[in-house]
Prior knowledge:
The chain is mainly α. Helices cover about 75% and strands about 0% of the residues. The protein has 17 helices and no strands.
Amino acid sequence: SRTRGPDDDLTLDALADLAGVYVFSGRHREGIDLAERVRDARVKRHGNDHPLAIVALSRLGYLYQAVGRMREALALFERARDEIVPRLGAEHPSTLTVLENLAAIDRAYGRKDEAIALGERVLEARVRALGARHPQTLHTLDSLGLSYMHSGEPQKALPLFRQAVAGLEEHRFASDEAGQAIAHLCECLETSGRTGEADDWRRKWLAAARSRYGPESVAYAGELEEQGFSLLDRKRPAEAEPLLRECLAIRRKAQPEAWTTFHAQSLLGAALLGRGAYAEAEPLVIGGYEGLKAREDRIPRFYAHYRLAQAGARIVRLYEATGRPEKAAAWRSRLDGSQTGHRAPSRTGSKP
């Protein structure tokens, strides 16, 4: 920024990336302030309907959601819809970005009909403009499928997820959103009773992620974790265990003090708890919870409560399963047992 100036577009690109790093490392206020600064600078330089300004607005809305400021995210996208869309036209690429962002917020607020209507509108426009296999079209297919899943219509979601994942596979899973789309497809398949097909896609994606990111990468660990989550959620702890063991080993080596490492530790404990290996599970679930609690301020606010609540609930289950009601009661009291039943948000909308 010293040579280019604080409002140069390359400088702002770097600041936008830094804003995300701040938010997801627990420095929420700094991250939001920086993202707002980037948005304001883009608008000042280019106008609020310029593609770079729309991207900055979208990133800011995403970070608002990540720290739990949902009303501000909703207001941001509604204002963009009302002020920017009329100037750009119904099928301008930036219009479609704004509407898709608004659909995601509608989905988060449980406004299912609104989310589906917007998603259908964006999908039709993107297919006309870009074709059925363009990366943006594939993203819209996945997003619309998720809206149908949230509305309790997996039969409508499944063909959308299939199309999205088939297109991503044609692109050799090069998109950063490939893992998310496959997770959505697998949940929908399992909801529809197609467990074998879901398992095939999981194996295919993990092999692709291992090759793409590297076997010791944090990115690959994240994919192992996501698949382990899903298997735990489907009451398949024995199958989740090796994935979560591999995930934890990578995280302990690469990020020994990160909150995500302790989250993975707690999840491995959950897998062991699920198959009755209580002695091995005990230090993992307790250490996982304590590590998360000590790093609570680093966990994005959007799901910090759920991470801790679920980690604590595993400890209560352990002591109940091993006939130690006094310890279970003590932990329940410590955790406020009325909150231990929450499920954390994830790619697919829930976590074990």
